[in-house]
Structures are given as C-alpha cells and as structure tokens.
C-alpha cells in the first residue's frame, strides 16, 4: 500500500471511531433525556408516564437506568401502589439486555409485590423458582408466604434450611403455630410439633405455651402446668397469651398455678385477669367477677382492659342473677382508657397482643401501649 493509501485508511478509521463516539453520545443523551423525563413524572405524581419514560431509559440498558427503575418500583410498593409496582417490574423483565444478576433482583422484587398485594399463589411460585436457585432472600419470602397461607409445616421446613444456629426462636414460633393448628385434629401430631418447638428454642415462651396446650389436650395436666410456669418465668409479659394453655391444663391445675404467681406479684393485672377466667370456668362466678374487676383496676398499660373487652364481646349472655355484675364489669372496661397494642415493625394495631403480626408477619413484635 502507498503512503497515500495508508493515510486514507487512517482517516477512514478515525472517521469510524468518531461516528461511533457520536452515536454513543447521542444514545447517552437520549437516555439522559428519557431519564430526566421519568424523574419529572415521578415528581409530578404521574406514575404511568414515569413508567413509560423510564422504560425508554432502561431499554438503553445502563446500570443507572436499572437502578432508577428498581428505586421507583420500591417506592411504588412502599406507598401501597402495587399495580404500578407490578407493571414496572414486569416491564423490566421484558426488556432485553438485563444482566442475569439484575434479573434475579427484579424477579425477587416482583415476588415481594405479589406478596404485598395479597397475590399469595403468584408470590409463592415466584419465590420458589428463586429459592431453588439458592437465593436466600427469596427463601425468607417463601417461608413468610407459606406462613400467610397457613402452611406452617412447610414454612418450618424452609426455616430449617435457612437456619444454621442451634437455637432458633423463629423456628420455635413456626412450630408452635403448627402445633396449635394440628392439636384440634390430632393431639399426638400437635404434641410432636410442640416438642420440636421447645427443642428449637427451649426458652421460647411461645413454644412452652404451645407445649402446655398439647400436654393439656393429651390429659397431662401436671406437665401442662409445668410448661406454663416455665413460659411465664421466661416471659412474664406473655401472661395474657397463656389463657389457652391454662384452659387446656384444666381448673384443678390452673388455679393453684395462677394463685401461686399472684402471691408473688399481687398487683399484676394480667394474673388477676387469668384468675378471673379460671374461676369463671370453675363456676365460681361472684369470685370471678371480683377478680376481673381487680384486674381492670390494676391495669396500667391498658392491655388487660383490651383483653377484657375482647372477652366480654365474645362472652355468652349471663344468667339473670349475674347480669348486674356483668354490667358493672362492662362499664368499667369501656370507661378505662386503652389504646390498641401496636406492631413495632409495621405499626399495625391489634385489640389484643398476638405472637405474630398478621400484617407484616413479624413474631413478638407487639409492644404494650404506653
Ligand atoms: Zn407488623
């Protein structure tokens, strides 16, 4: 090739490089514009236009666009706009050029959307695909959806895979809930699950109370009483949750247990409440009314008052000679100030304390109103 030929080739190459650069510059500019437009729509509260504009940006496939998309999807979900969150995440999955690692992230986000939107079967399927690929966050999601669906034994199975520690309070909660579900149909299966719960976390009040319920159902009243005592030693704040266990243990075992505890803590409102309920079961109605009244008077947090309102709402009509005492109690329970207990994690309110928040699925998240 001549000297002139080399020169021409060099010029052609340079031209090609410039053209490439110009093209990249043009694309980046377009993408930046689409991005800015999307941000503007978000700011002006027009989610549909924002999704459309950001789709243009994401089509060009830069990490920034994907990042923005994900942030927007999380924002939609946080504000409860699940239809838009789902549409946005589905859109993202349809775009070509999404890196495999990012794809997993988007699929996980979509599964979260489904769960928050109550589309539990869709969430379950989406989480399961990711969980099978070893995604830990998806496994946690899978476990929570199984709990939402009431498939507690499966949820416990997933939690066992997740947990590496010897003691696992969360697994204990799951197995305790499973035990309570199974007790109605099959006492021995329920008892096995309760024993597994206590094995998973020997100091879990939830597990110990579930065990007491199972022992009581199996006719083992002294074992039930022992487990209730252990539960209240571990967590005196769980007293209001101990009623099903006391009921299962039977009056003969429950009354001495509650009275022995009251002797040590005479001003404890939940214990007076429990004593009242046991006395009621025993048919000692006037004493029961006095104990329940005492519980209301001693209630500092309002939680016993709330439990009492719940009890009175569910209670059967009183016998004619008990009407006055019942009325007295009802008025007192309604007059006392009591705010609902609140989930410390998601803020959901509940009239009575529960082991698990129905809204966010957290265990032991309820705090006494104060
Ligand atoms: Zn919650």
Automatic annotation (TrEMBL):
<dbReference type="Pfam" id="PF18073">
    <property type="entry name" value="Zn_ribbon_LapB"/>
</dbReference>
<dbReference type="InterPro" id="IPR011990">
    <property type="entry name" value="TPR-like_helical_dom_sf"/>
</dbReference>
<dbReference type="InterPro" id="IPR041166">
    <property type="entry name" value="Rubredoxin_2"/>
</dbReference>
<dbReference type="GO" id="GO:0046872">
    <property type="term" value="F:metal ion binding"/>
</dbReference>
<feature type="domain" description="LapB rubredoxin metal binding">
    <location>
        <begin position="342"/>
        <end position="367"/>
    </location>
</feature>
<keyword id="KW-0479">Metal-binding</keyword>
<protein>
    <recommendedName>
        <fullName>LapB rubredoxin metal binding domain-containing protein</fullName>
    </recommendedName>
</protein>
């Amino acid at each position: 090739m001549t000297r002139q030929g080399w020169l021409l080739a060099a010029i052609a190459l340079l031209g090609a490089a410039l053209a490439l650069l110009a093209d990249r510059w043009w694309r980046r500019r377009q993408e930046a514009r689409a991005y800015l437009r999307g941000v503007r729509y978000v700011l002006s509260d027009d989610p549909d236009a924002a999704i459309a504009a950001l789709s243009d940006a994401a089509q060009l496939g830069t990490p920034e666009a994907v990042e923005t998309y994900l942030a927007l999807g999380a924002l939609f979900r946080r504000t409860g706009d699940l239809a838009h969150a789902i549409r946005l995440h589905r859109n993202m999955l349809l775009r070509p050029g999404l890196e495999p690692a990012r794809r997993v992230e988007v699929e996980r986000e979509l599964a979260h959307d489904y769960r928050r939107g109550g589309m539990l079967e869709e969430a379950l399927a989406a989480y399961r695909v990711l969980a099978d690929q070893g995604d830990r966050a998806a496994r946690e999601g899978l476990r929570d959806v199984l709990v939402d669906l009431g498939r507690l034994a499966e949820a416990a199975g997933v939690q066992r895979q997740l947990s590496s520690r010897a003691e696992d309070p969360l697994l204990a909660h799951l197995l305790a809930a499973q035990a309570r579900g199974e007790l109605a149909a099959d006492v021995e299966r329920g008892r096995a699950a309760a024993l597994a719960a206590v094995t998973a976390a020997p100091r879990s009040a939830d597990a110990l109370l579930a065990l007491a319920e199972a022992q009581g159902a199996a006719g083992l009243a002294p074992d039930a009483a022992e487990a209730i005592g252990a539960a209240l030693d571990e967590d005196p704040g769980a007293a209001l949750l101990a009623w099903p266990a006391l009921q299962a243990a039977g009056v003969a075992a429950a009354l001495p247990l509650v009275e022995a505890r009251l002797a040590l803590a005479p001003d404890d409102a939940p214990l007076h409440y429990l004593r009242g309920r046991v006395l009621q079961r025993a048919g000692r109605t006037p004493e029961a009314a006095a104990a329940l009244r005492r519980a209301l008077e001693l209630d500092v947090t309002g939680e016993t008052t709330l439990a009492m309102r719940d009890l009175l709402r569910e209670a059967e009509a009183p016998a004619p000679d008990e009407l006055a005492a019942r009325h007295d109690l009802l008025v007192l329970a309604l007059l006392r100030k009591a705010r609902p207990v609140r989930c410390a994690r998601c803020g959901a309110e509940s009239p009575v304390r529960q082991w698990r928040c129905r809204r966010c699925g957290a265990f032991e998240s309820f705090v006494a109103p104060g």
